[in-house]
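Handout, page 2. Input:
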Amino acid sequence: MTEVIKSIMGSGLTGIAIALVGLLAAIIIVERWRFFSSSVGKSFNFFRIISENVAKGDISAAIATCDAHPELPSSVVTKEILIRADRDDASMEAGLEIGLSKLEPMINKRVDFIPTLANISTLLGLLGTIIGLIVTFASFTNGDAEGGKAALTAGISLAMSTTAIGLVVAIPITFLGSMIEGKRDRSVSLYKEKLEDILDQLKNRHLNQKSS
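Output:
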């Protein structure tokens, strides 16, 4: 760990910047991972309760369940459907579309920023490489042999270390970011599947009411 810190500090401002980018990415990845894991787990029970209430015809209780779980993305969409349960099928379908439009920013929050951080890390590594090469080439114009040799060594070290640090940070960010995107996509698929089930229940309820 000490060697890693020394390597980062030895890479100058670019190395420190890359480390900060990596830290920011780690915070976002952990937060989003916990968000998707928690919300999906709670949504199974949430949709079960909603389905039971709709089956009993207790729409008010279903809406109250949505209000009791404002932290769940699924509750936002479900409520948009339920508040239109006394209207026609087209209105409920419109509610689904409105809810999904509200769901998107909640689900995508900070997720699309993760690949950007990976790119920034790579570019910072490239910037450090260029700076190192500039230092290296500048050493050839130095008349002092010993000083030039030291500058040459420092320049090559800076170029190599910043490149390595940039890649070491960018590769895990890219990999973990793709996993977060996978969890997001699975969450959206789950929500859409469960919401379609709720919508079908409400449509069948309308049919039963018309036939009775």
